[in-house]
Design brief:
It is built from one helix and 26 strands. By secondary structure, the protein is an all-beta fold. Strand 21 (about 280) and strand 22 form a beta hairpin. It is rod-shaped, with a radius of gyration of 50 Å.
Length: about 475
């Protein structure tokens, strides 16, 4: 029986480096570190080759003796244990990826500057001067965020090693400005300083009454604006009458509060004819006084407040008072304007039956203008005073203009008396009625918020004007404050 030959023996028998195809295995005449021990007949290349033409099919599948320096390893493989990557030094010893078998030992195949290192994923080549997992030595791992530079673990530029990781202390709330300097819960770190995140919001109260405001979560300081109610015009049974005064305006910033705290807020009411306006308050310390009512021929005094460590208060304009000697005809004083953010409210015009009286004045510092007076030395008719202008709640704006008067109409003409202009986007006071001879007419009401009512007199059937109600506005959020940044 002809001797059995291995695929490598058959390949060597073939000319040159001819290839013998055995199923999916390709065996060449050179480089046969491992060799198949048996060649089943069904795996002989059908392409035909002189190298295998005289091979007889084996009669069995048993092993045979491997030649020379090779050793038989299962399954049916002759292997050179000194060079076989799958049987390196011993049958079945597989060299890890990235290594080769030399003299029976698995060794590196890495080219400089790479070094063979092993890890959970197996053996691999890496550069020990740049690999943060193998920095200078295999297994020498840098901390999180560090980079390996020339074999040294370093944090990237602008970062600092805190405990076991690199971080930017200018923005890291756990290490703000330095390692271990943690910001309070809910705060951020900006430019190495902790900043508390404050929600932005506001609450407005524009209906007279008493309320409880609950401080929202995260809010520890607020800015508060208060406007007192305006006073009503006089209803005394005198031929002439005084106007109601404007309410005070007070603002305060950085008022401390506690999240979840209930704070009492009172919104002052405007005074009806002959009644004073009431105060607006926040808590127990901040208040803006209501304007006084006109009494007889005397105008009411402007509402006042008290400056605090948190802010300022300004007075409302007083109501116009009769200053002449001839009271036989009805002459109504103008209502005072509500106070402004940085100045007083305009004064109501002072009526007179002998002269044109004293005109109303405009508001100051964003305050409402005073209402016009009813003066008529020609005794053509009877007139009611104009209402004082109110003040807006969204921060300082333009001051209100004074109301106009009906004085020196010739020939006799009956015209309405102008109300004071609104300050800081508040509403203007109402116009006073101009009527012929002794026929009565209504005086102007005060403008929102806090304007004083114009004067009328029941002697000639006048109806005095009412003061406008006060208001309260609370704002919070970064950068928001009165009087300039209240939007």
């Amino acid at each position: 029986m002809p001797a059995r030959r291995t695929p490598c023996q058959l390949a060597r028998h073939a000319a040159g480096a001819a290839t013998l195809h055995v199923a999916s295995l390709v065996v060449t005449a050179t480089g046969c570190g491992d060799r198949t021990g048996l060649l089943p007949p069904e795996l002989i290349d059908a392409g035909g080759s002189d190298a295998v033409a005289d091979v007889e099919p084996p009669g069995d599948s048993g092993p045979f003796t491997c030649p020379g320096n090779e050793m038989f390893c299962t399954p049916h493989v002759c292997a050179n244990l000194a060079t076989s990557d799958t049987n390196c030094g011993a049958c079945g010893h597989l060299c890890p990826a990235g290594t080769m078998c030399s003299a029976g030992v698995c060794g590196s195949q890495c080219d400089p500057p790479f070094t063979l290192c092993s890890g959970p994923g197996g053996t691999y080549c890496t550069n020990l001067t740049t690999d943060p997992a193998n920095c200078s030595l295999c297994g020498e791992t840098c901390f999180a965020g560090q980079i390996c530079t020339q074999g040294d673990c370093e944090c990237p530029p602008g970062e600092t090693l805190c405990v076991d990781q690199c971080t930017d202390t200018a923005t890291d709330p756990a290490n703000c400005g330095g390692c271990g300097n943690a910001c309070p819960p809910g705060a951020t770190c900006e430019d190495s300083a902790c900043l508390t995140l404050v929600p932005v919001g506001e609450a407005q109260f524009t209906t007279p009454g008493t309320f409880t405001w609950i401080v929202p979560a995260g809010v520890t300081a607020v800015s508060v604006l208060l406007v007192g109610g305006g006073g009503g015009g006089s209803t005394g049974n005198e031929p002439s009458a005084g106007g109601g005064a404007g309410g005070a305006l007070c603002w305060a910033n950085e008022v401390p509060v506690t999240p979840g705290q209930g704070v009492q807020v009172v919104v002052g009411s405007g005074g009806g004819p002959g009644a004073s306006g009431s105060d607006s308050t926040f808590g127990e310390e901040l208040f803006a006084g209501g304007g006084g009512a006109g009494i007889g021929i005397t105008g009411g005094p402007g509402g006042t407040g008290m400056d605090t460590t948190f802010g300022r208060c300004f007075s409302g304009g007083h109501g116009g008072s009769f200053i002449g000697t001839d009271e036989d005809f009805g002459f109504g004083g103008g209502g005072g304007g509500a106070a402004g953010y940085e100045g007083v409210g305009g004064e109501g015009g002072d009526p007179s039956g002998d002269t044109c009286g004293l005109p109303a004045s405009g508001g100051v510092g964003g305050g409402g203008g005073g209402g016009g007076q009813a003066s008529d030395p020609t005794n053509c008719g009877n007139n009611s005073g104009g209402g004082g202008g109110g003040v807006g709640l969204l921060g300082i704006g333009n001051s209100g203009a004074p109301g106009t008067t009906s004085c020196a109409q010739s020939p006799c003409a009956v015209v309405p008396i102008g109300g004071g202009g609104g300050g800081s986007n508040g509403s203007a006071g109402g116009k006073g009625a101009g009527t012929a001879l002794v026929t009565g007419g209504p005086a102007g009401n005060g403008g929102n918020y806090g304007g004083g009512g114009g004067a009328g007199d029941t002697f000639y059937g006048y109806t005095a004007g009412s003061g406008a109600g006060g208001a309260a506005r609370i704002i919070w959020g970064a950068g928001r404050s009165y009087p300039q940044k209240a939007m």
